[in-house]
Amino acid sequence: MANTSVKGRPSQQKGVVSRLIGAPVLALLLVLASTAQTVGFKLLGYAFGPFPFVILITMSAAFVPLFGVPYAIARWRGVIPAETRTFPLRPYWVIGGLNAANGILLIFANPHVPGVVQAVLAQAGVPMVFFLSLWLLRTKYAPGQYASAVVIVAGIIVSLVPSLKADGGDDSVPGSASSRLMWSLAFLLGALPASLASIYQERMFAHARVHLLALMFHSSVAQFVSLAFALPLVFIPSFGTVSPAAFGPHMAAAFGCLIGNDPPAQLGYNDQVQCSKAGILILAVVGFMLTANFASAATTKYASASFMIFVSTVVTPVSSFAFTFSFIMGSHAESLSIFAYIALVLLVAGIFGFRYFDVPQYEETELEPLVVNQAGSPARRGRSASPGSYPGDGSRIPLSRPMYIPRAGIITLNTADPTARDATTLPVVIPAARPHSYTSHTAARAGFSLLRGNLGAYDGVAASM
Description:
The chain is mostly helical.
């Protein structure tokens, strides 16, 4: 390789400096972007008020070209392998449908659930994927992860206690105590289809050469179509926001709000919306989502596993406290009850423990570059690439799909001669050893698939191409 890091050489010194400077800066960017994304998601509910469906359909439509254009370019350049082009569409549609169900529950519940409670409930993906993978995939977890999952569940239960109080527990959102509890449970239930999508994605794509762009594009199309067919849900009493007779004017006002126009006075929506901010908020949330995913992948490249555990755990309490600041939330600023403090302590302890017991504790040593030969099998330089010679997921690890390798380093790709010194190098980020539990991390980070997880649920590897 042209730039092999050897102890004491400038290349290694440069790498140390990059880690010392790059990791904290990127970690700060990750925390800020994730917090802004969470807060922006809540503000969307206030801005659009009785128009939750327009958020769903607009965001879903935006992701189709966002992933479709890069996918088309990749196909034109011949980057997409033949196995991806012939892969059946059914798995994409299952994932897209589950993502749509996740979005419907979260977006419709958003205006009715306090932001602090949302920050806690969004972590329900960790125990849900944990128990689902135990049941469906027979996944093996470390003993500490069992206890950590129970602690997370306890934190979620504590966060719901204020909703059981007669006064509703929070004045920042409308509705009675019973309706707030119903919407909180709907928000919590939104983690179930996201968790099922994560489990299904892992099972279907674990040993298939499916390019990440193909997965994101086809599942986004499926998500958009699924939401279009789910349109009649807006007519359900106590869940939807409009009657069939008023649907036309309602949707016209909804898309008018998207471009900053207040709805007609006769509809009676003017005190429920903030249309001047609506379109800007959607763009901001998409931007923060993309920034958070980039920062997550980039931070993992420079930081140790322990540092990433700390950073990813900090996001939830920081987001929760952000909801209490009036300069951010305006008149919708919230207060933290004793139950919120207890829930956050339990949640942070549970998430930290779950991730800590999952990540293998490797020594901080320079890793010899991995070599991927023409068959896709990894090998150490000077060692044969026989199946099972490296602890991955099997005899080959294609570069065209998320990879789960319990190490981080440089993958060298040279289909002609894997030991050639002029081989092309791809920096790779592999933050966890077990794909099942790593998927639970990303699912827990995701929340609403369009806003928080459409990238995060599938970012098993981040490579600069």
